[in-house]
Amino acid sequence: MDAIILQILNGLDKGSAYALIALGLTLIFGTLGVVNFAHGALFMLGSFCAVTMQRILTLSYTIEDPTQKDFLGNPLKVDTPYLVSWFGESTGQALIEWSVPLAILFAIPVMLLVGYVMERGLIKHFYKRPHADQILVTFGLAIVIQEIIKYFYGANPIPTPAPDMFKGSLDFGVLIGYAQNTIIYPYWRLVYFLFSAVIISAVFAFLRFTTFGMVVRAGMADRETVGLLGINIDKRFTIMFGIAAAVAGLAGVMYAPINSPNYHMGMDFLVLSFVVVVVGGMGSLPGAVLAGFLLGILESFASMNEVKSLIPGIDQIIIYLVAIIILLTRPRGLMGRRGVMEE
Amino acid sequence: MSKFNLNRRTLIKSGAAFGAGLAMPTIFTSSAFAYTNEPKGGTVTLGFNVPQTGPYADEGMDELRAQELAVQHLNGEGDGGMMNTFSSKALKGNGILGKKVQFVTGDTQTKSDAARASAKSMIEKDGAVMINGGSSSGVAVAVQGLCQEAGVIFMAGLTHSNDTTGKDKKANGFRHFFNAYMSAAALAPVLKAAYGDDRRAYHLTADYTWGWTQQESIAAATEAVGWETVNNVLTPLASTDFSSYIAPVLNSGADVLVLNHYGGNMVNSLTNAVQFGLRDKMVNGKQFEIVVPLYSELMAAGAGENVRGVIGSMNWNWQLQDEGSKAFVKSFGEKYGRPPSNSAHTCYVQTLLYADACERAGTFNPCGVVEALEGFEFDGMGNGPTLYRADDHQCFKDVLVMKGKENPTNEYDTLEIVEVTPRAQVEYAPDHPMFAGGDLGQCNSGA
């Protein structure tokens, strides 16, 4: 039982990332009808917002320390962050430590802008083109974004730690009556899960309880009629593209301490997130979230030694296997709508 | 209107003439070149096949820096680096056999097919006489096979699988880098001294040639000092999140986690293990420990503070204080402003060793080079007295046991040397079971 609880917990944080990326993908597909293969790159850009914030906060001045030598025997150049110099060691280091949470504030405007520029500058020209063209152009864009990041940040992963207070793990087992060290769960993954729940709820609330959201939902259902009412639905959809980019970016920012950001991380999530969208049902926001968590948990279960010993290699194919089964039994996915991508 | 009569005599005559015509260029070729890409002018071309794109691009870039430096030194430019400390004095700084050294580069992308294609292009289009570099065992095995078929020498870069000089060894291929068996042989006594002989190890292993041989080697070596192997879980190479593999470790009764991972896998699995707080736990009355059998400086930097106190092994490190290492670090550091990685070191040394073998053999003919390198004993290249064993073309030399530094002073200062394990301790018989199944075969000059 403890192993099952453990894998459910593991699946939750993985599922959180899938759900957040798939939510953005579905938002874009549901509003603009665009299959955005650059969405993984937006997740990666979010992670690099955290890296950038870390670099901004650790901007330093250099002094030579004659008492220490570098690898060539020259006086060692010691970097002192300006924040430490201005606010003292403890406050300065505390600010640097909190670079990932602080990066959220930085990432929101950056990702909104990136999304807006992407949509106005490139993707709007492909609205009336076949989905194959959209996939090609967005996939190409993803590669361009990757290469730009690699040029500026290198190919190596960049460690981006969580604040000290979130290091270590919660002994979850003790809370529910198990022995010590039976079910442990890292604090930051718990934060990630709660954060994604907040973001998902916020997006749903925004679409459900605001006039803007109501118009967007109406536009998703019948774009032409909303347009005939004199509402500039294109403008709202462009804003939704920016919001979807921001959601992917925030998912990336908070993911940075879980796995050190690297330029390729978006591609690692992209294909799985598309499977999540298809399983959830193209254009269905609740479907994307449900499928994200479901597949994340299933993927964790498939990694269990007991399962792998029964079906070797199952951990690598489980998501695709489930996708096939669901699409065979429910061709529109778990919560898909009639008529979406069926023309 | 003419009439064409084809009889048996005409057919034989025509066939013979046609055959001779076809054979003519081959005859000229074989008499003109005694071996593949025999240099005819005043230059000789070396091919540097490194990952320039993909997740190992930074490591590939460091290899390329070292290879460029080696070419400079061979051509008499710069301070000469390790040529000044190398025990063989055949190299004069006037190129190789009087020919100026030039080089071409290829991008392996850390993919076997791409690496073979780029090596093939450098051999066939650019006339490379030797291929050097790479940072994956899969790539090394693939390119080594290609070089054997093409009749050029392969001086492997970073490849740590036992198979490269085991079941996949080739007469035209040479490995200076150490291997998984040597890592394990060096690590086991240090692990025993540090953590005791009553330990239960849980292995996570990358599911490909290097991971398998690394796990087999480290399990055998630690079991020999009294440890028990609790479990070995194979993880897909494409994995990025290892949480579901790490979560069951504490419940397994293990008190050591061995991460048979390299590169991005190592960075992520180590980061995940530290996040789960494994190193803070007490299991079986002992502090839980993590071991990373193969370290690289770049990956240690990628894992950041998570490497602190974690033991692993390396082929070479810039902190070594022998004259050869100091000369190389000085040359490299002054040119590029950073200390070289151990993959840079092995590529640099391999380039000089190839050049030296050509000088001693008096030819670029691969069979002459093979003969010169087989059984070659040398020193002054950073690892103490070293032997290129004739039986399998594996270098035998001291191995470094490393530990993640507790208080690094800069981004290059992530690891510290715990022990320099003497060569005798990591040697093994050519017919050792972990290296069985291969055949070196005969050298191929491509003639």
Can you offer a commentary on this structure?
The complex is a heterodimer of chains A (343) and B (447). Chain A is built from 15 helices and four strands. By secondary structure, chain A is mainly α. The radius of gyration of chain A is 22 Å and the shape is globular. In chain B, strand 6 (200-206), helix 6 and strand 7 form a beta-alpha-beta unit. In chain B, helix 3 runs parallel beside helix 4 (137-150), helix 5 packs across helix 6 and helix 11 packs across helix 12.
Number of domains of chain B: 2
Largest interface: A-B, 50 and 47 residues
Which strand order spans the largest sheet of chain A, edge to edge or round the barrel?
A: 1-2
- The CATH class of the largest domain in chain B is identified as Alpha Beta
CATH superfamily of the largest domain in chain B, please?
Response regulator
- Gap from first CA to last CA of chain A: 46 Å
Uncertain stretches of chain B: 21-31
Helix content of chain B: 25-40%
Multimeric status of the protein: heterodimer
Share of helix among residues of chain A? 55-70%
How do the strands and helices of this protein lay out in sequence?
The complex is a heterodimer of chains A (about 350) and B (about 450).
Chain A: H1 2-32, H2 39-57, E1 60-69, E2 75-81, H3 82-87, H4 89-97, H5 99-121, H6 131-153, E3 169-171, H7 172-175, E4 184-186, H8 187-209, H9 211-221, H10 223-228, H11 233-255, H12 265-280, H13 285-302, H14 305-310, H15 314-329
Antiparallel strand pairs in A: 1-2, 3-4
Chain B: H1 8-32, E1 43-50, H2 57-74, E2 100-107, H3 112-124, E3 130-133, H4 137-150, E4 153-156, E5 173-174, H5 180-195, E6 200-206, H6 209-224, E7 228-235, H7 243-246, E8 256-260, H8 264-275, E9 282-283, E10 286-287, E11 289-294, H9 297-303, E12 311-314, H10 323-336, H11 342-361, H12 366-373, E13 376-378, E14 386-388, E15 395-396, E16 399-404, E17 415-421, H13 423-426
Parallel strand pairs in B: 1-2, 1-3, 3-4, 4-5, 6-7, 6-8, 8-11, 11-12
Antiparallel strand pairs in B: 9-10, 12-16, 13-14, 14-15, 16-17
